[in-house]
Amino acid sequence: xxxxxxxxxxxxxxxxxxxxxxxxxxxxxxxxxxxxxxxxxxxxxxxxxxxxxxxxxxxxxxxxxxxxxxxxxxxxxxxxxxxxxxxxxxxxxxxxxxxxxxxxxxxxxxxxxxxxxxxxxxxxxxxxxxxxxxxxxxxxxxxxxxxxxxxxxxxxxxxxxxxxxxxxxxxxxxxxxxxxxxxxxxxxxxxxxxxxxxxxxxxxxxxxxxxxxxxxxxxxxxxxxxxxxxxxxxxxxxxxxxxxxxxxxxxxxxxxxxxxxxxxxxxxxxxxxxxxxxxxxxxxxxxxxxxxxxxxxxxxxxxxxxxxxxxxxxxxxxxxxxxxxxxxxxxxxxxxxxxxxxxxxxxxxxxxxxxxxxxxxxxxxxxxxxxxxx
Length: 374
Fold this sequence. Notes:
By secondary structure, this protein is an alpha+beta fold. The protein has 3 domains: 23-53 and 301-370, conserved putative lor/sdh protein from methanococcus maripaludis s2 fold, CATH 2.40.420.20; 58-68 and 223-298, Elongation Factor Tu (Ef-tu), domain 3; 72-220, CATH 2.40.50.100. The protein is built from 6 helices and 22 strands. It has helices at 3-21, 36-41, 105-137, 142-169, 173-182, 360-370; strands spanning 25-26, 31-33, 45-48, 50-65, 71-75, 80-85, 92-93, 98-103, 188-192, 197-202, 209-210, 215-220, 226-232, 244-247, 255-265, 271-278, 290-307, 312-314, 317-323, 327-339, 342-346, 354-358. The strands form 4 sheets. It has a 6-stranded antiparallel barrel with strand order 4-13-16-15-14-17. Helix 3 (105-137) runs antiparallel to helix 4. It is elongated and about 120 Å long. The chain starts with a helix and ends with a helix.
């Protein structure tokens, strides 16, 4: 035996004696025997496996958007001068609130024509009632009664037409009724909110003259928001309608649900468009915000959530350390996905095991060191 061989044998013998003098012994069947003293010295902490029914599938960026049916552009129904803007971007408004006031000469002309039609209808109604009585008494011919009734209907139709034009111009029923009573013309036009929502944008300024149909405000109902997600085409087959979407870094763990998977691929970035509808309170996110999301799917097989630090890696495989009466058992697992500082795993578990949630690095060092032939 040469000197080099003797030194290696002596070194191995010395290491073996040192290890045997401690209370840690690794068996060939991946069982680690550990004394209570070393359990404390290694800083090991235990935790139970937490069963889960959702497995992470994909992480991706997303954009928060307002559904098209929940968004309105408030436009000027008549040309005129903007007298007053009552709300600003971010303000919450209720349906019927006055958002802005315009001075519109065209509105004066429409009111005048409406009052003229009302006066003609009143005269026509008197003639209608008179000829109706005369016809009943046999004084007038049936032809004259038909002419009077036809003219009365024409007057009524004209009043309805002008009333509808005033409503289209932005006057409320109450304002039109008040005009009919007072006969007082006013060029001031109130722009009202068609829904309850939040002002998202303002496109006009007080003191400026705007044309008919010129946009003034953009208003949105934020009771429902969507997530627009671009999914890499090679991953689209793993995503299904109904999959749960979790928005990261939100205080109340806001969730959404996949409701749409696009049928075409974006040629520029080779992604498929997906849409998720956000559930619950919308205050944690805002329209236009870029967020990071995680898509998860329901699993029918047993899956558990453990801290990332509880998992040990060796030769491409993953392991956890399961507490036994005499120490720990090294048990191989499969990592299904990650959620921040936790991982979703599957393996041969009964849901009652305790694993090392802290100190796994020390256990791994002892496991690999004692099992080595070096």
